[in-house]
Design goal:
Elements (H helix, E strand, L loop, with lengths): L10 E2 L16 E2 L22 H9 L3 H12 L3 H14 L7 E7 L5 H14 L4 E6 L3 H4 L6 H4 L1 H4 L4 E4 L9 H15 L4 E7 L4 H6 L4 E6 L4 H6 L2 H6 L2 E4 L7 H15 L12 E4 L8 H18 L1 H28 L1 H15 L5 H14 L1
Parallel strand pairs: 3-6, 3-7, 4-5, 4-6, 7-8, 8-9
Antiparallel strand pairs: 1-2
Helix pairs in contact: 1-3, 2-3, 2-8, 4-13, 15-16
Bound molecules: guanosine-5'-triphosphate (GTP) and magnesium ion.
């Protein structure tokens, strides 16, 4: 057989085959599919990059972590078409069945929130729970904190099948992620995670937002002097169902216990965050894994109590309605500021106000009037 000449089945001997024993030589090359248009692949449907709403929903319900993560990206997206697909998925999943426990963890930068979350997560897993960990508010740009990058640090948890970790995206606009956190919680619950842990850096407004998304709210603090106690805003302590003085280890142990005493006295005069629930101050060490069981037990007891009294369900329903209102407010705000006329006039009005040539009340009225006229 000549080199390169085709056989009946389309195979041929290539140029470089030795001349001896041509036919017994094992190297016979079959031509590949030269023209993919005529080949067998054409009839196969083209794989689209994006799964359908049905595929997403089914995948999430089967705890397909990749699809869950992609669905979260859709709801977090600022693109209208992505968000609308995300909403379709949420719609298919249906209203909140209220079976999970949502725990918020806040505290100043560096208090040990992420470290303690990993310990709490491991304790919850050992009790048979399925745990999702989310970051709220990418204030990391200010503090370098948040759980951005913690996925690698939380390596023991990341390896667990029953645990899902969603680090906060980098470079997000402040408030952007906070706005979508409720959707993210819903998606995780649909995937069967029954305890949701939300970490937020306590730098102001974010605590109030997180309180409005969770059932149980924990404030993590460091051992400190009485002076520092003054610095912790009374309002933040008032939002908490539990206060944990972390880093109660080594040289800090004694100081941590003293701090607990000070906070215990301070909370005496505060309103409860949850009706019928008395907040406690405890010490813990995330690094030595001390006090972790106690935190989980307090959260369980909180859940039992509030479910029993009906407070749990009532709060969930109130939160659902507040969520509705905040969606409306966000929509109106976005709509207002993205309107062409507002964008055009904002600069000019700003100048006038800064130069003292216009009253803020008049400036606001002009902008609003222009918006409604447009
Ligand atoms: N001694 C001691 N150090 C701790 C403990 N928990 C956390 N740390 C240390 O405190 C530092 C901050 O811990 P993180 O868990 O990142 O704190 P965070 O509150 O999540 O920080 P941000 O997200 O940046 O606000 C790290 O160096 C931890 O190793 C503890 O129980 N004891
Ligand atoms: Mg952190």
């Amino acid at each position: 057989m000549d080199k390169n000449s085709k056989r009946a089945d389309g195979s041929y001997l290539p140029e470089w085959v030795t001349d001896e024993n041509e036919d017994t030589f094992a190297t016979i090359v079959k031509r590949g599919v030269m023209d993919s248009g005529k080949g067998p692949f054409k009839s196969r449907p083209e794989k689209k990059g994006e799964p359908s709403v049905e595929e997403f929903t089914a995948g999430i319900k089967e705890n397909n972590k990749t699809l869950l993560a992609r669905a979260i990206t859709l709801v977090e997206s600022n693109s209208a078409s992505h968000y609308s697909k995300g909403r379709e998925i949420l719609k298919k999943i249906g209203p909140d069945p209220g079976k999970s426990l949502r725990i918020g963890i806040t505290g100043p930068p560096g208090a040990g929130k992420s470290t303690i979350i990993e310990e709490i997560g491991l304790e919850l897993l050992s009790r048979g729970h399925r745990v999702a960990i989310l970051a709220v508010d990418p204030s990391s740009s200010l503090t370098g904190g948040s759980i951005l990058g913690d996925k690698t640090r939380m390596e023991r948890l990341a390896r667990e099948d029953n645990c899902f970790i969603r680090p906060s995206p980098s470079g997000g606009t402040l408030g952007g992620v906070t706005r979508k956190s409720r959707e993210t919680i819903f998606l995780c619950e649909a995937a069967g995670y029954n305890v949701i842990l939300l970490e937020t850096v306590g730098v102001g407004q974010s605590e109030i937002t997180v309180r409005s998304m969770v059932d149980f709210f924990t404030l993590i603090l460091n051992p400190g002097s009485g002076d520092e106690l003054q610095g912790i805003k009374r309002g933040v302590m008032e939002l908490a169902d539990l206060i944990v003085v972390n880093k109660a280890d080594g040289n800090n142990l004694k100081r941590a216990k003293m701090t607990r005493g000070e906070y215990s006295r301070a909370i005496h005069y505060l309103q409860p965050s949850t009706e019928g629930w008395e907040r406690e101050v405890i010490v813990a060490s995330a690094i030595e894994s001390k006090g972790i069981k106690k935190i989980v037990e307090i959260a369980e007891s909180f859940e039992n109590n509030t479910r029993g009294s009906g407070i749990f369900d009532r709060r969930r329903r109130d939160q659902a309605f507040n969520w509705t209102i905040s969606l409306v407010e966000n929509f109106l705000k976005d709509n207002f500021y993205s309107s062409k006329i507002v964008r055009t006039r904002l600069g000019e009005i700003r100048e006038k106000i800064i130069d003292g040539k216009m009253l803020p009340t008049d400036g606001a009225e002009e902008l609003i009037k222009s918006y409604f006229k447009s």
